[in-house]
Amino acid sequence: MKSWISYFILLSTKYLTKLFYKYQIGWPKERIKWDEIKLIILLNHTSLFEFLYVGVMPNSFLHKLSKRMVAPAADKTMNRPIVGLFFKLFNPGIMSITRKRDETWTDFLDSIYDDSVILIVPEGRMKRADGMDVSGNKMNIRSGILDILMGLQHGKIAFAYSGGLHHVQIPDKSLFPNLFKTLKMNLEVLDIDAYKTQFSAIIGSERWKENILNDLQFRLENKTPI
């Protein structure tokens, strides 16, 4: 029942979004095989309204997400009475975690199954209007993504490079989104095993972890739409 509610909300969001927004998507040269995607890495996290990007996904993949998606979300967000309820209805696989490596992160990793589709924002917090996080620090990649990558053996990664949504909604500045804007995103799809083995280091080693974090940081800073 929860998955059908989620699917209805995902579809409703998709078609409502198409009424009020335009998309400018940098698609990969090869057609995306959505049924092979196991991991979605969203880079350039700027707003809680990034769920609007579901408008670019086919209905068959949204149906799969309604049943198989797992995603970590900050407990601060999930504890909000309205926003938290929306995300729980949006997808029951969204799990509340703290910003520490405690049992909430372990529970999230344990919720990943072979047929799961994982969505993660590896920066772990939102970029504010000044380009920094809420504490005034530079946006960078957190190490939690490494735990996920080490546990995946097959399938595809979809890198979703967001153009940013501050023109739609700025965190802590506005409650309702601005309508009739253009949502920009670049998409890149890579084989999980090929991505993990492209670095000249043993998977799981400290050097490999450093290489992955550096690569994702480079993608964050250089592959988002202008």
In short:
Helices cover 36% and strands 19% of the residues. By secondary structure, the chain is an alpha/beta fold.
Describe this structure as you would to a colleague.
- The protein is of the alpha/beta class and 226 residues long.
- It has a domain of 155 residues.
- Helix content is 36%, strand content 19%.
- It has 8 helices and 7 strands; from the N terminus they run H-E-E-H-E-H-H-E-H-E-H-E-E-H-H.
- The chain has a 7-stranded mixed sheet with strand order 1-7-6-2-5-3-4.
- Helix 1 packs across helix 2.
- The protein is globular.
- The mean pLDDT is 95.
| Helix and strand run | HEEHEHHEHEHEEHH
- The gyration radius over C-alpha positions equals 17 Å
Low-confidence stretches: none
Q: What is the typical, i.e. mean, pLDDT?
A: 95
Q: Give the termini separation.
A: 41 Å
Overall 3D geometry? globular
Give the % helix: 25-40%
**How many beta-strand runs?**
7
Structural class: alpha/beta
What's the helix count? 8
Largest sheet: 7 strands, mixed
Strand residues, percent: 15-25%
Q: Give the strand order of the largest sheet, numbering strands 1, 2, ... along the chain.
A: 1-7-6-2-5-3-4
